[in-house]
Design goal:
alpha+beta, 6-stranded antiparallel beta sheet, 7-stranded mixed beta sheet
Amino acid sequence: MKHFMKKLEHILEIGGIKKDIAFLVISGIALIISIFDLPVFPFDAAWIAVILCGIPIILEAIIGLTTEFDIKADVLVSLALIASILIGEDFAAGEVAFIMQLGALLEDLTVAKARAGIEKLVDMTPQTARVLRDKTEFIIPAEQVRVGDKLRVLPGESVPVDGIILSGQTSVNQSVMTGESLPVDKTVGDTVSSGTVNQFGAFEMKATKVGKDSSIQRMISLVQSADAGKAKIVGMADRWATWIVIIALTAAVLTWFFSGEIIRAVTILVVFCPCALVLATPTAIMAAIGNASKHGFLVREGDGLERLASIKKIAFDKTGTLTYGIPKVVGVKSLSKHYNQDKIYALAAAAEQYSEHPLGKAITASYKSENKNEIIAAQDFKMLPGRGISAKVENKTILAGNLKMLEEYHIDININPEIKDFLNKGCTLTYVAIDGIFAGYIALSDTIRKESANMIDQLTQIGTPAVLLTGDNKNAAMNIADQVHIKEVYSNCLPEDKLNYINDSQNENMPVCMIGDGINDAPALKKAFVGIAMGGVGSDIAVDAADIALIDDDVKELPHLVLLSKRMMKTIKLNLTFSMGLNFLSIILAITGVLNPVIGALVHNAGSVVVIINSALLLKWRNKNVF
């Protein structure tokens, strides 16, 4: 029996959505032929709709009842189909089957989205490692690395396991773990995580966490567990199906018993078919998705908007979400009697023009955008991994980098209050020395999106306060939060920390919407009641983990999306109220004999049209009082 049921399920899955669309088109034409009684076939054309649309419904009902004793809306539909056919009302059977399959198709279209985030995370996992044994280098599969092994990582390679640097200096791109776009300088004694990328200098390390304990593998586990824990919303018709079936069967049997007319009983089954009820939710969702797409949102999960209407908080990542994720020069300070800030800026931009470091590129790019003068030529450029750069500009030796580099060159530095102010604001400083003398510094910072503050204010106004979850340090996090008016702030967050915050909030009945852009946000995006990824600057993995993607990264439309979801739920409730009211009115008319099966089916058809028109109003809806 189980083997037979599995074969039935396989048959129903063959062809997918394209097959369902083709069947609906053919069935629709057949019903038109039937209602006008056109002599096209030697049989009632409604039978085509019964076979193409009705048989899958009956099979689904059989599978649900026999394998799990699961009573869904298709059980009542199957009874109505069979009863209509038995008394010769072929058109009524075909019309009901067509409407029900149309509703099922709309539901399928809203949820048929590929989810490949976990597979992409797996692809990012380092496959090999350079192990040093007896001063000889061996390349082995990364899963064979053991705790305590000594490894070498070259520039451009991913760190294979978690560990501690034993020798060498470098900068590591840790965006996979922290979401921060700027690389972090690393030296002896610093820790490195698997999956992060070594950008410049080679280094040797000792493995401390391997296999499932490594950072990238924990990330994969977090995404998998978060996805498994997110409940899916059940369709309203299926949720009420048991009661609908009981009421319909009871009414039909009693009517047949007291009236003696089986046609009245069959009419009750036909009019009680939840056609409009089935269409109530998917049509509203499809219209709302169409509205959302016009405002730059790609809804990847059909029930994402349904869940969004229930959120109590919106949690934001910082980099690439509230900010552009690109460092820019925000201040230049001269501490030299011989060079003003413009000259220091020009010399540093010239020295950094060949740098591959994001900070160096940012200094040169910012200088070009702010000054019409061309970049001065530079010679003898040298990259100092984990430290900075040196170059000759106008016969002057320019050093630009961090404090460690200037200390190694024995250059005295005075840490004045302004430097501390920039650091407290979360800025990154590049210190500049000219001919061996400290000349000044350049402050760089991620820049806030111009629409972020107003967007946060609007979200607060509509009752969804914002929370900041960032991998940045406390000073940088508080500086950004103050500018965009966010009160609740959590800094130094790893992927586990964001996931735990969301889990704890939702356990306290506070559903959270997470908005992020990086790979490190993927577990939180999966775990959140609703996940929204920045589709433009965000990683593919973040987008795949989310329910909704913001295609053009225009965050100012987020309040509209939240209000749209709430409006959609109001529309769904109105559709459900109307459809249930129509059902009970039709039952009364069927009991009294006013309706026959064909007229009852047409009444249902009219009810379905009303539901569709009401849902279609969502396509152009916008709350003008808030924006």
